[in-house]
Amino acid sequence: MSEMVKNMEELVLDGFDDLIADALATISKKQRSPTPNRKIGSHHKGPKTGLRVTVDGQDINPGNANEVFATALERMGLERVSQLGIRLSGIALVSRQPAMGYQSQIRKGGWYVTTHANNPYKKRKLEEIGAALGIPVAVEIDR
């Protein structure tokens, strides 16, 4: 009987060896060929994009899309933008007070600008705010 148990153990261990080898090969293959789409948990993200914005004839190019968005709002006048009462994810788009426990805000001259949004949303909001304030705004999404 112990011979039969020993044979079964060998079969199981051989199976595990194959399983482990397959898993390592898969991991190695994924590391060699990253995909262009990014993933957070079970959600896929599209390719990284940026924003190019012109406010009242002045180009804004400070860096990433969040910084461009916040700087564009700053150029339009954060006081005036805050008076529009726009909210993003239930949080004021522009406020004097930081949102508690919410890290997707950029501080600009004593104001907090909420930036947690995708670039098409940022583009649409910048255009709407510019129209509401009578300020010419041009926004392009870089691909």
Account of the protein in words:
The chain has 143 residues and is α+β, with helices and mostly antiparallel strands. It folds into two domains: 33 residues; 93 residues, no CATH class. The protein contains four helices and ten strands, in the order H-E-E-E-E-H-H-E-E-E-E-E-H-E. The chain has a three-stranded antiparallel beta sheet, with helices on one face. It has a three-stranded antiparallel beta sheet with strand order 7-9-8. Helix 2 runs parallel beside helix 4. The N and C termini lie far apart (67 Å). The mean pLDDT is 82.
Mean pLDDT: 82
User: Into which percent range does the helicity of residues fall?
Assistant: 40-55%
Structural class: alpha+beta
Beta-strand share of residues: 15-25%
Shape: elongated
Question: Summary?
Answer:
The chain has helices spanning 2-32, 65-76, 78-82, 119-133, and strands spanning 38-40, 43-45, 50-55, 58-60, 87-88, 91-92, 94-95, 105-108, 111-114, 137-142. With 143 residues, the protein is of the alpha+beta class. The model has no long low-confidence stretch (mean pLDDT 82).
